[in-house]
What we know:
By secondary structure, this protein is α+β, with helices and mostly antiparallel strands. The chain contains one helix and eight strands. The chain starts with a strand and ends with a strand.
Amino acid sequence: MTAFYDADKLACVALDPVTGPQVFLSGFPLALSNPEQVQQFLLDHAAEHGNCLLHTPDDSLSLTEVGILLRLQQVGQRALPVRCS
């Protein structure tokens, strides 16, 4: 896990998709899961709860009210989701 700060305030926590820790949103595992399934879960979750969705220039998906930015990290031949909050 890596913490990022901006002006001495916590700005983001990035989780390693291989070593964890595992993070859940409404019981759904966000790390070590199929990226397409995680993205669909976040889309469904946002629609169900009225969360604002943001697509970043690198095609990452963010649920701004929840504080989740889903980015992919290449691990060998696989791309695994990384959560940034």
